Amino acid sequence: MTTTRTLRFELTDQELALLPDADDIAFYAEHGWYLTKKLFTDQEVDRLAAASADYYAGARSRVLPVLPPRLAAWRPSDGPVQRHNDYVHYESDPIAKVLCKPLLGAVAALLAGVDEIRVFQSTLILKPAVVGEPSNIVPWHFDKHYWSTSTSERMLTAFVPFHDCDEEMGTLTVVDGSHRWRETGRQDSMTRHFADRDRADLERVLAENAAYNGAVIRKVPLVIPKGHLSFHHCRTYHGSGPNRSDRPRRAVSFHLQDGANEYRDFALSDGSPAAYNHDVLVRRLPDGRPDYADPAYCPVLWQGAVHRG
Ligand SMILES: O=C(O)CCC(=O)C(=O)O
């Protein structure tokens, strides 16, 4: 069974005051990241944390009808490693109910300069408070590499922690302005998820690309208070360090697409087609391509011009 969530695309006066202003939008365009105001109340964040605990304990509103080839799906039997679980907006209504907030979509629409924002993917993440756990380190990468079958260059990610999130917890760290870099020779290996890559190699790729652009690498750890979130552009290099605190670092990486995004054929260097997990799940367009606007998996989060009041 699939359900389609109906959202009203209206903001209250209180919410209008939380939108980015023209300077914030210019900042995002220049730097490739942006730290929002407090978009979620403490109660909403606590509901998200509780729903994610239920999810880890096995609660599901529905399950994926097929398991895509590169699905991140941590299970308790995987043990105290970094947890990644994709499609939580699909599998958990209690998570989706909080996460799919029109205000979040409106902020994304303003930053991306578009009139429509749809969900692309949501990944529930937990970095255990385990000293020296190697999987807690997220090596440098940018998300567009995983989204070669998407036409859009405006996709972006909201990083939504469930608590104050700082460097000690291994918060998200972005490379300032790197979304504007030109890329040195593209390698197919970049389309592989960072968890399957050699960390030193990704460090080398970052240094090589910075040098190619005559850029200095400025790493900015995003200190995010509870209820606030960060956005990063799909070409902004990012990663994160170990969790040195005594609490798990818990968050959702909420990946978003603009209304114009659609599937395109993308050939890897050996001629084989690149794929994204959606391709075995979403409905098909009349011409046979996967439909990245299938409301069951990619619901609309915001539609219409955003008027700041
Ligand atoms: O969990 C992290 O620190 C990194 C998450 C990430 O790569 C993303 O939000 O795109």
From TrEMBL:
Which named protein is this? Ectoine hydroxylase-related dioxygenase (Phytanoyl-CoA dioxygenase family)
Q: Provide the species name.
A: Kitasatospora gansuensis
Keyword field contains Lyase: no
Question: Where do the coiled-coil regions begin and end?
Answer: none
Known Gene3D superfamilies for this protein? Answer: q2cbj1_9rhob like domain (2.60.120.620)
Record keywords: Dioxygenase, Oxidoreductase
**GO terms for MF:** 2-oxoglutarate-dependent dioxygenase activity; iron ion binding
- Superkingdom of this entry's organism? Bacteria
Q: Name one Pfam family in it.
A: PhyH
The question of whether Electron transport is a record keyword is answered with no
